[in-house]
Specification:
The structure holds three protein chains of three kinds.
Chain A: E1 2-11, E2 14-21, E3 30-35, H1 41-53, H2 66-69, H3 72-76, E4 82-90, E5 93-103, E6 116-124, E7 127-128, H4 131-141, H5 144-147, E8 151-153, H6 158-161, H7 169-181, H8 184-211, H9 216-259, H10 261-344, H11 356-373, H12 380-393, H13 401-433, H14 438-486, H15 492-534, E9 542-545, E10 551-554, H16 566-584, E11 590-593, H17 601-611, E12 618-622, H18 629-634, E13 641-651, E14 654-659
Parallel strand pairs in A: 3-12, 3-13, 8-11, 11-12
Antiparallel strand pairs in A: 1-2, 1-4, 4-5, 5-6, 6-7, 9-10, 13-14
Helix pairs in contact in A: 8-9, 8-15, 9-14, 10-11, 10-12, 10-13, 14-15, 15-16
Chain B: H1 3-17, H2 23-36, H3 44-64
Chain C: E1 6-7, H1 11-22, H2 29-43, E2 58-59, H3 60-63, H4 68-75, H5 85-107, H6 112-117
Antiparallel strand pairs in C: 1-2
Classes of the chains: A alpha/beta, B mainly alpha, C mainly alpha.
Chain lengths: 662, 65, 120
C-alpha cells in the first residue's frame, strides 16, 4: 500500500479544503509534518483512520461522533459538509477512497448524529465498487485491526507497556488484536467452521448407522453423545453470551471509572482526611479532659512556684531561731552546773573539793555566761509560729501540673493547627469533586469488582464445559471409528466425511497454537533486532517476548531488566511495532504522531535512522521541540525528506496545512 | 506470516500426525479463509462444505474405479 | 480581725465564672476560682476593694480546708494590718476571675500556656 494524496474538507481543525501529497520516490521516502501541540497533528492521523475505517478516535481511543469532527468555524457558517479522500496504490492496483458526511436535511441544523448522513465511495482501477465490497477491499489491503500499528500515536505507547503484565485485561485485548493482525483468525475461523461441519457430519453418520443392524447400538450411543453435545454447547453459548455482556459492562464501567479516576482518588483522600480529623478531634477531647483534670490541683503548683523563695526565707529564720534557742539552753545548763559546783564546794564534773582559784574561775565563768544570756530569751512563740508556717506552706506542693499543662497546651495547639489545615484541604477536595456523584462512583467500582469475580467464575465454568465437550468429542470420535469399520456401504460416505473433517479440524486446531508460537518467535526476533539498532546500550542482549507479546529487555547476563525508563519503553514499543509490521507481511506507509517524545537526543538519532527503514513511506508528525534541524542532520535523514508540511494556526479552532518551500 | 508459511505449517502438522488427507484440501480451505478473514459477513462455511463434498466425490470415484 | 466564714464573687463576676464553667473551661467552680486566686497571688499585687457586695458562694473551710490559701496570702505580704486574710482572698478571686473571663471572651479559651509560662 502506498499513499499518493489526501484531501481534507472541513475535517477537525482543517476548515475548507486541504491537500497533502505523499512522497513517491523510494530514496526520499520521508515526509515531515510539523506543528505545535493542539494544532492538528493527531487530527491528521484521524483523517486517515476516518477515511479508511469510518472511525476517528479520541485520546481514550473512543470513537468521536461525526458531528464533533466537522470543523467548528465551518459549522458556524452553516457548512456541514465534511470529507476525506485518499488516493493510494496496492501493488498494481490504483484506488481512491472517499468518505463524505453531510446533513440529511438542508433546511435543518444538525444537532445529533442522526441528522447527518455518511457515504463512502471506492474506485478500484477507475471502477466504482459497491458499498458492500468497500469495507472488504479496504480490510484485505489494510485490516483495521492492523492499522493501529501503521497509524501510530506515539503518546499511546504506554498501552503496549501493559503487555508486559501478563494478567492485565488490557493485555488480552491488545494480544487479540495482534493475533488478528498476524493471520491467526484465518485458522480460528477455519477450525470453527470445521467443527460445525463435523457436527453435521456426525449426525448424518448416526442416522446412517441407525439403519444398519450392526451399528444400531453404536448409533444410539452416538445419538446420546450428540444430544449431550448439543446441550453442553447450548449451555456454553449461554455462558459466552453472558460473558460478552459482562465484558461489555466491565469495559463501560472501566471507561467511566477511568474518567473519574481523579475524582475517585480525591474521594479516597477525602475519606482519609475525615478519618484523620475524627482521630485528631478525639485526641483533642482527651487533652481537654486531661487539662481539666490538672486544673483541680494546678493552683497548688502555681502557688508553690511563687512561694518557694518565701518558704526558704522562713525556714532560714526558723533555723536561726532554733539554733539560738539551742545555744541558750546549752548556756543555761552550763550556768546551772557551775552554780551547783559553787554551792556544793565541789566540782560538778569530777566531784573534787574546789580550791580558791577554781572558785574564782567558776564565778568568773558564771558572770560571763550571765552576760551572754542577757535579759532576753529566744522567742519561743516566734519559733513555734515559724515552724507552723513552714508546715503549712509545705502543703503547697504541686505534682508537676505546670509542665504537664504546658505540654498538653502545646499538643492542643498543634492539633488545632492540624485540624485547620485538614479543614482547608477537605474544603478544597470537596470543591473539586462537587458535581460528581461520588457515591455513584463507589457503587460503580463495587459493581465492577463484583462483575470481575462473576466473570472469572463464568470463565471457570466455560473451561469445565469445554473439557466435557472435549471428552464428548473424543467419545464420538471413537464410536465413529467403530461405526466406520463395521459399517456397510450405505454409511461409508458419512463415516468418511466424519473422518476427513475430524482430521482437518485436528490440523487447524494444532495449527492455531503452532502459529501463535511461530509468529511470537518471529516478532521476538524482528523486534529484538530493531531494538538493538535503536538502543544506545550495546551491552543488552536483546528482547524477550511473553505470551501476550509483551517485550522485556535482557541485560548482558540474559536477566530481565526490571525497571525501564520512559525512553526505554518507547523504544521497546517501537521495536514491537516493527516486529509486528514485518511479521504481518503487510507493506504500508507508517504514519507516526509524536514518536520521539520521550527520547534523549542520542536515542532520537538512532530511532530516526531506523524508522526510515521500517516502511516504503514514513511520515513523522512532530512538534518543533521533538525534531529540530540539528537532529535531522545528525541522523543523516535530511536528503531522505521527500515532502514537508507545516500545520499552522489560524485560530483556536482552525489550522491550515502549508507545504514547506511553497 | 504469509500464506505460504501458514500452509507449510499445516502440512508439517499433517505429516507429523500422520493424517491421510490430500494437501490440496488443506491449502484450499486455508487460502479461502485468509482471503475472507477480516470480513464481517463471510460465506466461507458453504464453500468449505463444498470443498469437502468435492473431495468425497473424488474419493468415491477413485474407489469405484 | 475576725475571718469571714464565707467568701464569693460579685454578681457580674459570678456570672462570668458560671459561663466559663458551662463552656467547659473547668469541671467546677472551685477549681477555676482557686486557680484565679493562685494566679493573682503570684502577681504579688494588693487587690482593690470589691466594687459591690460579694455573694458568699464558698464556705472558707470547704474552699481552703488546709488553710493553704490563707498561708500563701499572708506570707506574700498581701494582708494589711487589721485585715481579714480571707477578705483578701476574696478580692484576689474577684480580680483573678475577671481577668480569666476577659481572656476567655477574646479568644474562646484561657491560654494556660501564656499564663503559666511566666510562672514556670
Amino acid at each position: 500500500m502506498k499513499f499518493q494524496t489526501i484531501n481534507l474538507l472541513n475535517f477537525m481543525p482543517y476548515r475548507g479544503t486541504h491537500s497533502v501529497q505523499f512522497p513517491q520516490d523510494p530514496t526520499r521516502n520521508v515526509m515531515l509534518m510539523t506543528g505545535d501541540n493542539m494544532r492538528g497533528k493527531t487530527s491528521f492521523l484521524n483523517a486517515i483512520r476516518w477515511c479508511l475505517y469510518g472511525e476517528a478516535l479520541d485520546r481514550s481511543r473512543h470513537k468521536i461522533d461525526n458531528l464533533k469532527l466537522i470543523n467548528t468555524e465551518a459549522a458556524k457558517l452553516g457548512e456541514y459538509e465534511m470529507s476525506v479522500s485518499i488516493s493510494f496504490s496496492e501493488g498494481e492496483d490504483q484506488l481512491e477512497m472517499l468518505r463524505l458526511v453531510k446533513r440529511q436535511d438542508e433546511a435543518q441544523i444538525p444537532l445529533v448524529e442522526q441528522h447527518l448522513v455518511e457515504t463512502t465511495d471506492l474506485t478500484l482501477n477507475g471502477n466504482p465498487q459497491t458499498a458492500d465490497e468497500i469495507s472488504n477491499i479496504i480490510n484485505r489491503i489494510m485490516p483495521s485491526e492492523i492499522s493501529r500499528f501503521f497509524l501510530f500515536d506515539g503518546e499511546l505507547l504506554q498501552e503496549y507497556e501493559s503487555l508486559v503484565v501478563e494478567q492485565a485485561r488490557q493485555a488480552d485485548q491488545i494480544k487479540e488484536r495482534i493475533e488478528q493482525a498476524l493471520g491467526v483468525p484465518a485458522l480460528i475461523n477455519a477450525r470453527d467452521e470445521l467443527k460445525v461441519i463435523q457436527e453435521d457430519a456426525t449426525k448424518a453418520q448416526e442416522r446412517d448407522a441407525r439403519k444398519d443392524k450392526q451399528t444400531k447400538s453404536k448409533a444410539s450411543q452416538l445419538a446420546e453423545l450428540l444430544a449431550s453435545q448439543e446441550l453442553l454447547e447450548k449451555e456454553r453459548a449461554g455462558i459466552n453470551e453472558q460473558q460478552t455482556e459482562m465484558e461489555k459492562d466491565i469495559g463501560t464501567l472501566q471507561n467511566e471509572l477511568s474518567q473519574t479516576e481523579a475524582v475517585q482518588r480525591r474521594q479516597h483522600d477525602i475519606d482519609l482526611i475525615k478519618t484523620n480529623q475524627k482521630n485528631k478531634e478525639t485526641a483533642l477531647d482527651t487533652i481537654e479532659v486531661d487539662i481539666k483534670d490538672q486544673l483541680k490541683t494546678l493552683w497548688l503548683a502555681v502557688l508553690e512556684t511563687r512561694i518557694k523563695d518565701k518558704v526558704k526565707a522562713i525556714k532560714q529564720e526558723r533555723d536561726r531561731i532554733q539554733h539560738e534557742y539551742q545555744q541558750f539552753a546549752s548556756l543555761q545548763e552550763q550556768q546551772s552546773n557551775l552554780t551547783k559546783s559553787l554551792e556544793s564546794e565541789e566540782c560538778a564534773y569530777c566531784k573534787q573539793p574546789l580550791k580558791q582559784q577554781e572558785r574564782q574561775a567558776i564565778e568568773s565563768r558564771i558572770a560571763d555566761i550571765q552576760s551572754k544570756l542577757g535579759n532576753e530569751s529566744p522567742n519561743y512563740e516566734a519559733l513555734q509560729k515559724l515552724t507552723n508556717t513552714v508546715d503549712l506552706l509545705n502543703n503547697i506542693k504541686g505534682q508537676g501540673e505546670i509542665s504537664r499543662v504546658l505540654n498538653l497546651s502545646k499538643q492542643k495547639q498543634g492539633l488545632r493547627v492540624e485540624l485547620v489545615q485538614l479543614d482547608t484541604r477537605l474544603a478544597q477536595l470537596e470543591e473539586e469533586v462537587k458535581g460528581f456523584d461520588t457515591s455513584e462512583i463507589s457503587r460503580k467500582r463495587k459493581r465492577l469488582d463484583q462483575t470481575l469475580v462473576v466473570l472469572e467464575q463464568s470463565r471457570n465454568k466455560a473451561r469445565e464445559l469445554n473439557e466435557k465437550l472435549g471428552k464428548n468429542k473424543e467419545q464420538q470420535g471413537a464410536i465413529s471409528k467403530v461405526i466406520k469399520q463395521a459399517s456397510g456401504a450405505s454409511s461409508r460416505r458419512s463415516s468418511t466425511k466424519v473422518d476427513i473433517v475430524n482430521m482437518l479440524a485436528q490440523i487447524f486446531e494444532r495449527g492455531i497454537d503452532d502459529l501463535r508460537d511461530s509468529v511470537r518467535d518471529q516478532v521476538e526476533q524482528t523486534a529484538s533486532s530493531a531494538f538493538m539498532q535503536m538502543t544506545t546500550e550495546q551491552t543488552y542482549q536483546g528482547l524477550e517476548i511473553n505470551k501476550n507479546y509483551g517485550l522485556q529487555i535482557k541485560d548482558q547476563h540474559g536477566d530481565i531488566v526490571k525497571l525501564r525508563s520512559a525512553g526505554a519503553e518507547q523504544i521497546v514499543a517501537l521495536s514491537l511495532i516493527d516486529g509486528l509490521n514485518k511479521t504481518s507481511g503487510r507493506l504500508a506507509p507508517i504514519i507516526m504522531d509524536t514518536p520521539l517524545g520521550r527520547l534523549d537526543p542520542k536515542h532520537r538519532e538512532n530511532v530516526l535512522k531506523y524508522l526510515l527503514t521500517m516502511a516504503e513511506q514514513v511520515v513523522f508528525i512532530v512538534h518543533e521541540g521533538e525534531l529540530d534541524r540539528e537532529a535531522i542532520s545528525r541522523a543523516g535523514i535530511a536528503n531522505r525528506i521527500g515532502g514537508e508540511y507545516q500545520i499552522q494556526r489560524i485560530s483556536a479552532t482552525e489550522s491550515t496545512l502549508v507545504r514547506a518551500g511553497a | 506470516m504469509n500464506n505460504k508459511d501458514q500452509i507449510d505449517l499445516l502440512l508439517a502438522i499433517k505429516n507429523e500426525e500422520g493424517l491421510d488427507i490430500p494437501d490440496q484440501i488443506l491449502i484450499d480451505i486455508l487460502s479461502l479463509h485468509r482471503e475472507h478473514q477480516y470480513e464481517k459477513e463471510r460465506s466461507t462455511l458453504k464453500q468449505v462444505t463444498t470443498l469437502i463434498e468435492d473431495h468425497l466425490d473424488q474419493l468415491s470415484i477413485e474407489n469405484n474405479s | 480581725m475576725p475571718e469571714p466564714t464565707r467568701i464569693g464573687l460579685t454578681e457580674p463576676t459570678r456570672d462570668c465564672l458560671l459561663e466559663m464553667i458551662k463552656e467547659g473551661i473547668a469541671d467546677n467552680n472551685w477549681d477555676l476560682y482557686k486557680l484565679a486566686v493562685a494566679l493573682e497571688i503570684s502577681e504579688g499585687n494588693s487587690p482593690p476593694p470589691l466594687p459591690e457586695k460579694a455573694n458568699g458562694m464558698f464556705r472558707t473551710y470547704e474552699l481552703d480546708p488546709d488553710s493553704v490559701l490563707c498561708a500563701a496570702v499572708e506570707n506574700m505580704n498581701l494582708v494589711k494590718d487589721n485585715e481579714a486574710t480571707y477578705s483578701v482572698v476574696e478580692r484576689l478571686g474577684e480580680v483573678g476571675v475577671k481577668k480569666l473571663y476577659e481572656e476567655y471572651k477574646s479568644t474562646g479559651s484561657i491560654s494556660l500556656d501564656k499564663l503559666l509560662v511566666n510562672i514556670d
